[in-house]
Amino acid sequence: MVTSAAGGGLCVMYSNSPTKGKYFQDVGKFQDESSFLYQFQLGQYLNTWTVYDIVPQFSTSPYKYGDAIQISYTTLGYLGNFTLPTNSDVCSDTTKSKMLVDYSAKCSRKLDASSCNAGSPFDLQYYLKGISFIDDPSKDEKQFIVPQITILCFNAVTGLAGTCSGLAGSAPVLSNGVCSRTVKSLSYTFQYTIVDSKLTISSVIVTAVLQSLTVTASSRYFAQEFSIAFKNSDSALVYKKSGNPGYRIGSPVLTGQLTTQDELNAISYIDDPTFGLTLPTDTITSNSIGCSLTGADYANRIPVTFGENTQTGCTMWLTLNQLNTQCDQLRSRIFNLQTLTAANVQYVGMFGNATVNNPFDWILVQSSPMEEITGSISLPQDTFGKCTNLLTSFDIQFLYTFYGSETNPQRAIVGARFSYTSGSFQWECKTRSNCVDPSTYSSPGSEAASNIGTVPQPFPIRSSVSFVRVSTTGSKLFTPPPPKVFGEIPDDIWYPFKIPS
Question: Does the pTM of the predicted model rise above 0.85?
Fold first, then answer.
């Protein structure tokens, strides 16, 4: 930098000296604990915790909606949360059961010779032994509720569960390649009371279904089903709402039938969603994945829930002989499978809190199935290996709209319909062995041998649910009338005097 001095002299100054500038002051060293902690605690977002316990925490407040259900492990006296398997392909016993929240799950477990024994997930005692349920976490002297158990056995021939014979509650046992007394399903029903606004579990009822499974040299997966439901001990029927008043997305569509008594109409409400509107889906059997083989398999179905468009279905595995000789039976079987629960539904709730005593809260379902697809009449078969007039597609259709204020719209069903689509199954010559018996290659003219088409082919059927909104011309501004300063005056207020007109 160049400048001139007062006397006219020339001065030269250096402003870029490396020693010029501001320097950090020495803070010293912190080698005693008190000064170190004082300085360290002035920092923000510290990674040091004052407490770090690996100790499970359990609520000591009364149960409320959505709280985890607490259990006690009898031997150790420890508390825990009651869990059920996740609803997935492979079972994982990690889903916490929540108070007043119904839940169901279906998953598969691997079964081999090593898992057909006591203490495995196929053993009933695996789910029940050594635990009891806490009635009320807030009580100083808690009641430990031991579940009441009903054991049924599954009959693979009839597809029904009935009374067991022998040691049904004992551990699974492997004999001659068959693992008996394995858990097929478990259903928990929690009965509760509400006293002084406190929710208390009064009893737990468990229904177990056992079955026998074939064990092979290689591991195989078998399906298990679990469910939990809640019932108020003070009421014979807990009326479950799906909204108040409008439907909640994902809640079950309310269903019922019209009943008349003494010239009064009411709706017979179907309170169990298992028997409400449901659709078939593929199930895991010992040999394949396909449609349920039992006639009334209510458990292996998908519920119809409001606002959720769904497409599902299952696969029928059929041989050529079944298509040729059992077409009438097949027609009836498919119709009953598709409409297992829909056949009992005449009405659906208009709102999520539709009242059973008021039929005007309910919407009549339009349903007109063709007699040909029901299997109630015998039909001729025109083509070899082809079965016609089958209910290959069953569709449940809803119309809905919004009511009320735009700031708080309420969803309501304004129309419902069952749609029936007829189709055919035709045997396909995918390979030569599907349509030609290899043993007849050297014998011309014998191509139609009886053992052609003995390997089943897949024939899928489908079902769907559709929700379509009925839109209007828009919303309308509502302005309430001004309140009256004076109320209505009775005509005879001056009685017995008369006022001339």
Answer: no
